[in-house]
Amino acid sequence: MDVQVEDRPTCQLVQPSGQLDMETAPRLQAALEGLIGAGRTRIVVDLGRLTFCDSIGLSTLVVASRSCEAAGGFLRLARPNAFLLNLLTVVGVRDAVHTYESVEAACR
After folding, report:
1. Is residue 45 a contact partner of residue 79, using CB atoms and an 8 Å limit?
2. Tens digit of each residue's pLDDT (9 = 90 or more) over 92-102
């Protein structure tokens, strides 16, 4: 999995691509923790390039979301596919993270 971070005027855009699972989640976690540690707590994660996400990957996103909120910011998910939306619902965290159909909407 590759993780790209883009500094936007209203948020930090994080773009993971490929599979987000037990093996690759630490890469995303490191990127998110780096941003949060630097005080950049308005984060949008663009999920449009993910091909797979397991419960470990999902947990990484939820934990980072809570850290952002505790610091007065947010972590929003942009472009989740139907599988990810269902996974969020099944594991009971659909209300814990906000999802948006586009990166632009999430960055507002």
Report:
1. no
2. 888 889 999 99
